[in-house]
Design goal:
377 residues, alpha+beta, 13-stranded mixed beta sheet, 28% strand, globular
Length: 377
């Protein structure tokens, strides 16, 4: 097909989202709404690349290769620029989330978008580019041996399949799902209710209570907290599909999550619980409430989010019946430096995590978002 790669313009908005919504391999973080959310929240510069058919091609339908015959878009790549003296200079698709990456009709478009991204990276003098995919890009296996973009400063790539999405296929009703659980899991859910815990599902009116839990939990984990504005902007951008879930004891919020629907999947990008109340099992009621909501609203899959195989969150999610699906994070070095294939991001920040856990919560509320916006994870 005859196509060209351009930088996104506002006039492309409807075609962009139409392409994402129609493509069988798309994910929620390729939607245009995240561009607005990240720009409005953190002032980040975004570079959204779009591949469109030429005018003559767009006027005729090619039945052998249409995702959507009436849409001139044949591929896209959302990129966000993260630049900081301590945290590096990167283009990421998508930072803060598990997925993003290239979405295309075919390999030809995929390679053209990637080459355009490399050119952009050189202009911005970035060190690395990172694409977070739910499927492996096969031709990248030979990329290092065949790439000759620059003999003096070659672009090299490493794929890290070190994280997984945890997905559960849902039955037609929450009653069937509950009956499918082992008796121990059902008793843990029931225990929370018997101890006086209850759940609420809502929107902006629950944001303050969400953030109370989120703030403390992130401090306890040793991680700078996101700005409350990223949550507020997400609720506004996806007002029809985004909901907050809170588990309470009387008027005290103990656990929280934010869920967003996309196609047949209910995604859970953020969830937290207060460690000091773990004996009451608020997390069990929280996740059951999300699963029940997903079933009762016609979703076929619930995405528990990212985990590392064998770690605590992985084991927690498997007890609900969640199955791992490998995430393929493709890293590209544009400055000639080697990317460590097995390097652990967490180990790099072990000391910082320990210090952060000792900070008073009000301080982390102020400085957390100032740091968090620079961290792509």
């Amino acid at each position: 097909i005859d196509f060209r790669v351009e930088e996104f313009e506002d006039s492309d908005a409807s075609a962009w989202d139409a392409y994402v919504n129609a493509h069988p391999k798309s994910n929620i973080y390729q939607l245009l709404g995240w561009k607005r959310i990240i720009e409005q929240t953190y002032g980040r510069k975004t570079y959204y690349l779009i591949a469109v058919k030429s005018v003559s091609q767009a006027e005729t339908t090619n039945p052998t290769n249409p995702i959507n015959p009436s849409n001139p878009v044949v591929g896209l790549l959302p990129l966000v620029h993260l630049k900081h003296v301590l945290f590096g200079n990167s283009l990421i698709s998508m930072p803060y989330f598990d997925m993003g990456g290239i979405l295309v009709d075919n390999e030809e478009v995929e390679k053209a978008l990637l080459n355009s991204a490399f050119e952009l990276g050189k202009q911005l003098k970035i060190h690395t580019m990172e694409l977070r995919h739910v499927e492996h890009i096969p031709w990248l296996d030979d990329f290092n041996s065949t790439n000759t973009n620059s003999a003096t400063n070659p672009i090299t790539t490493v794929t890290k399949p070190h994280k997984v999405r945890m997905l559960i296929k849902l039955p037609g009703s929450s009653e069937i799902l509950l009956r499918s659980f082992k008796s121990k899991l059902r008793s843990q859910i029931q225990k929370a209710s018997k101890d006086g815990l209850f759940a609420k599902i809502g929107g902006n009116e629950l944001l303050d209570d969400f953030f109370k839990v989120f703030l403390i939990n992130m401090r306890d984990l040793g991680s700078p907290v996101h700005s409350k504005e990223i949550l507020r902007n997400t609720l506004q951008e996806f007002s029809e599909k985004a909901r907050i879930v809170i588990v309470y004891l009387k008027d005290q919020p103990l656990a929280c999550s934010l869920v967003i629907g996309f196609k047949n999947i209910l995604e859970n990008p953020w969830a937290s619980a207060l460690k000091k109340y773990s004996r009451l099992a608020p997390n069990m009621l929280l996740y059951w409430t999300m699963l029940k909501y997903a079933c009762d609203n016609g979703y076929e899959i619930f995405d528990f989010g990212r985990s590392t195989p064998g770690e605590g969150t992985y084991k927690f999610k498997t007890q609900w019946g969640a199955k791992p699906k490998t995430l393929y994070w493709h890293y590209f070095s544009l400055n000639g430096k080697k990317i460590e294939a097995n390097g652990s991001e967490k180990s790099r920040f072990d000391a910082a995590i320990r210090y952060w856990q000792k900070l008073p919560v009000p301080i982390t509320k102020v400085i957390g978002p100032m740091i968090r916006k620079h961290i792509g994870l």
